[in-house]
Amino acid sequence: MKISIINGSQKPSGSNTGIILSTLNNLLGKDNDIDNYTLGVKQFSAEIYNKIVLSDVIVFAFPLYTDSIPSNMLKMLIESESFFGREKAKETVVYAIINNGYYEGKQTHIAFEIIQNWCDRSGVHFGGGLGQGAGEMIGATQKTPLNKGPFNNLWRALKLLAEKIEAKEPFGIKYLSPYFPRFLWKIMAHNTFRHPLASKNKLTKKDIVSKIM
Prior knowledge:
Blueprint lengths: L1 E6 L8 H12 L5 E6 L7 H7 L4 E7 L7 H16 L6 E7 L9 H14 L2 E8 L3 H5 L11 H16 L4 E5 L5 H19 L4 H8 L1
């Protein structure tokens, strides 16, 4: 089976999306013909689009940006529509893996609606996917294997998703949060990610609040 996996993170390396996809690749059978693409900030060439549209399965993976999909991913989806229109892609099944910084995986539901609408427009089948909460925590705990830490449920879901991908069967949409208390994640997010980034960019708490208001 020909599978195209597309990493839509704008980070050139070390992304949480990349960590998830590395696990998925290891769970997929070795007999599959798997092509991994990293979108980044540059768009794909016509040659790559022509390869992707011939896939049996396509997996889109990306971080949530303001409750939606990243601009680079949106542009790629729009550009790819014309390529799908030239091919008989009606047997292609599309799955999505979306991670976000909020604790609740359900925060990705709008992005899933966008992907599903794109599938309907492009003439491919939407197979569902995973919406993962507390995505930044994946990178912070990457020294702990997914199947042994707070993301054990993600590992089990990815294992099931890999089985559905190989069978080209519907997976549905599953929203996940880590096995980690929400209040501790909030503290961890502020002290590990938000505050250090604000300090690095010479912003005070007052500056951040004023921007939000």
